[in-house]
Amino acid sequence: MTLQPKSTIAIFCETRAEWMISAQACFRHNFPLVTLYATLGEDAVAYGLNECEATHLITSAELLETKLKISHLKHIIYVDKKNINTSAYPEGLQIHSMRAVQELGAKPENCELAVQPQRPQPADLAVIMYTSGSTGRPKGVTIIHSNLIAGMTGQCERIPGLGPKDTYIGYLPLAHVLEMTAEISCVTYGCRIGYSSPQTLSDQSTKIKKGSKGDCTVLKPTLMAAVPAIMDRIYKNVMSKVQEMSYVQRTLFKLGYDYKLEQIKRGYDTPLCNMLFKKVKALLGGNIRMMLSGGAPLSPNTQRFMNVCFCCPIGQGYGLTETCGAGTITEVADYSTGRVGAPLICCEVKLRDWAEGGYTTQDKPHPRGEILIGGPNVTMGYYKSEHLNEDYFVDEKGQRWFCTGDVGEMHPDGCLQIVDRKKDLVKLQAGEYVSLGKVESALKNCPLIDNICAYANSDHDYVISFVVPNQKQLTALASKKGIEGSWEDICNHPTMEAEVLKAIKDAAASIKLQRFEIPVKVRLSPEPWTPETGLVTDAFKLKRKELKDHYLNDIERMYGGK
């Protein structure tokens, strides 16, 4: 099994301790690590394995048995403590358990023959990270060791007091740059890491038996990273429970919430008021001192809720795989909403005019434009795909830059706000530009909506939408309307479509969306959009192309068959 330094090793596995242990071993021996999401489709995994030509793969027994298509592989190491039937695999392919590999390495005679670790150089390749992407097939982002170090240095500088007293809970995909850099940083600073999953996080999680305790309750983490979709879910669950309280309890909660919110805006804490939110805080173990949100914009309502009820700052960050997850993070003392903070010490941020979308650096009151990130954290491009590297450039001083495709607004204090995305902008038939991301972000806080995808094309003058409704809220509404049947029947009922559309219009009016931005037709989806369905990425970003293909018949119906 001896590998020479700079030989790639692929890892296709769920988030667990063995993933990080394997990654650290690869870094130590200068083996570039090829990361593949556990929820990537079979074709995407096969594509990544074929492109990187890895001969060694680390995976789990479950993924090995269900999804794997063999390519250049010679050795597969699976991390579970179970036996695999190797007869089902090609003769030249060797299957090993991780325990067997560890035992092999522990034998004295093998230790003498083992290749001594060769320390990587800053410019050596560390990771080829295949992104699940919101469009097309996966792209391998090439990350060198100095990119990783720069990105993590910038991120860690915004987390005060990071050290051995901290406990971090890992549950996001480790093949995502946010989780991978967060965990490597924890290892660097001596923090404990406990492993979980989105289905076992809290006592109320779907895979926790009633009466049993969730992972947060047991681990009591102090630090946690989260994507907005998970925070939105926590917010809606708590607020629905508040609605079920008695009038007195509900009034007390609202008074306490409003009072603390006002004090937070002034920069004060409310120790007595915090007692009121003890039960809510206990949902994540009770010890959270800081949360980091990334992957997508966090709605102001959800951010305020997390600040108030979990009694901790929410560091909202902005970065991409192409910038090692680093770009900006809000300061701990910054309780403003809708912003992603100032540039980290590892990079620079500048805005470039985007005339077609109507954004320029001369805009008032604040300059706006496409966000460019430059610095040592900017990665080296896409693996074996030089033709895709047009978003990278090197300036006259030799600094690498990446053109993000996101549109930002720079505030006078140096903090950035994400206001649009170039790919999300659609020109309607009448000439108006609609930002689909803006519409979705504005309507996500509607109680009837768990997730929403806005859609428009230039042949028509209106926006339509696809909605994953909140099952509890919609079922209760259906009962009031006298509509019975299965969950699918409720979602397909024209009356319920009309009710959700009414709720959308009410929400849009309260946040002052333009008339042409408000969806006029809706299709309710009884199935949630998860990474497993292929309709969202592992960071829960919408995959617009896949969603369009999935709802093609509905699009034709809602646009009158045109």
From TrEMBL:
Boundaries of each AMP-dependent synthetase/ligase domain copy? 3-383
Q: Which UniProt keywords apply?
A: Fatty acid metabolism, Ligase, Lipid metabolism
**GO function term, MF aspect, one:** arachidonate-CoA ligase activity
Q: Does the keyword Magnesium apply?
A: no
* One of the protein's GO biological processes: neuron differentiation
* E.C. number(s) listed in UniProt: 6.2.1.3
Is this entry keyworded Lipid metabolism?
yes
CDD domains assigned = LC_FACS_euk1
Q: List the GO cellular component terms.
A: endoplasmic reticulum; lipid droplet; plasma membrane
Q: What is this protein called?
A: long-chain-fatty-acid--CoA ligase
